[in-house]
Amino acid sequence: MNGLTEQQAKEFHAQFKITYTAFVGLAALAHLMVLANNPWF
Amino acid sequence: MSDIAKPSNPNDDWKIWMVVNPSTWLMPILFAVLLIVLTVHTVVLQLGWFTWG
């Protein structure tokens, strides 16, 4: 397709999921802290 | 066209990287996310619900 082998695509996706989950986790934490400090609803 | 197998997600999610090459598109994707994040923060802060500090 675009030069990546199946193995590479699966490896990259595994890391992508980890990093994205961490990003969402941190964003959720930040939103909870704002909510605790300065509730907007 | 209709004989192409439908993907079953999330099991086949990884196949996106067989089409979108991350060595080309990972940074543009991350910059797009940054642009969205900065835009949303700017708009929300202008709502006046929050004061910074």
From TrEMBL, chain A:
Keywords: Antenna complex, Bacteriochlorophyll, Cell membrane, Chlorophyll, Chromophore, Light-harvesting polypeptide, Magnesium, Membrane, Metal-binding, Transmembrane, Transmembrane helix. InterPro entries: Antenna_a/b, Antenna_beta_CS, Antenna_beta_dom_sf, LHB-1/5, Light-harvesting_complex. It comes from the Bacteria. It is a single-pass type II membrane protein. GO terms for molecular function: bacteriochlorophyll binding; metal ion binding. PROSITE patterns: ANTENNA_COMP_BETA (PS00969). The chain crosses the membrane at residues 18-36. The keyword Protease does not apply. A bacteriochlorophyll binds at H13, H31. Residues 7-41 form the Antenna complex alpha/beta subunit domain. GO terms for cellular component: plasma membrane; plasma membrane light-harvesting complex. The keyword Membrane applies. It is found in: Cell inner membrane. GO terms for biological process: photosynthesis, light reaction. Antenna complexes are light-harvesting systems, which transfer the excitation energy to the reaction centers. Belongs to the antenna complex beta subunit family. This is Light-harvesting protein. It comes from Thiorhodococcus minor.
UniProtKB/TrEMBL annotation, chain B:
It comes from the Bacteria. GO terms for molecular function: bacteriochlorophyll binding; metal ion binding. Its main location: membrane. It is found in: Cell membrane. Residues 13-46 form the Antenna complex alpha/beta subunit domain. Keywords: Antenna complex, Bacteriochlorophyll, Cell membrane, Chlorophyll, Chromophore, Light-harvesting polypeptide, Magnesium, Membrane, Metal-binding, Transmembrane, Transmembrane helix. Pfam families: LHC (PF00556). The keyword Cell membrane applies. InterPro entries: Antenna_a/b (IPR000066), Antenna_alpha (IPR018332), Light-harvesting_complex (IPR035889). The chain crosses the membrane at residues 25-50. One of its GO terms (biological process) is photosynthesis, light reaction. One of its GO terms (cellular component) is plasma membrane light-harvesting complex. Antenna complexes are light-harvesting systems, which transfer the excitation energy to the reaction centers. This is Light-harvesting protein. The lineage of its organism: Bacteria, Pseudomonadati, Pseudomonadota, Gammaproteobacteria, Chromatiales.
